[in-house]
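Recall that a protein's primary structure is simply its ordered list of amino acids. Everything else, from secondary elements to tertiary packing, is in principle encoded there. The following example makes that idea concrete.
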Amino acid sequence: MAEHSDRVAPHVDVRRGSPTAEELAAVVAVVSTAYTQESEDARADDSRRSAWELSQRALRSPLRRDVGWGRFGG
């Protein structure tokens, strides 16, 4: 895990209950570790699309000749 000198202490706003200092420290440690691991594992897809892939039209499926043209009528 990389150490950063510009870390800011987290702000915890307790809405219910009265956790002890140790409980708050445990929550902050677990969440901070999970966040750090997730941010280190996050990578953008670096695959580049060719000019052909960007300019090609989507291929159309073949026409169904068995349906016929008169399916809108009774």
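Residues 21-41 form the longest helix (21 residues). The chain is about 35% helix and 0% strand.
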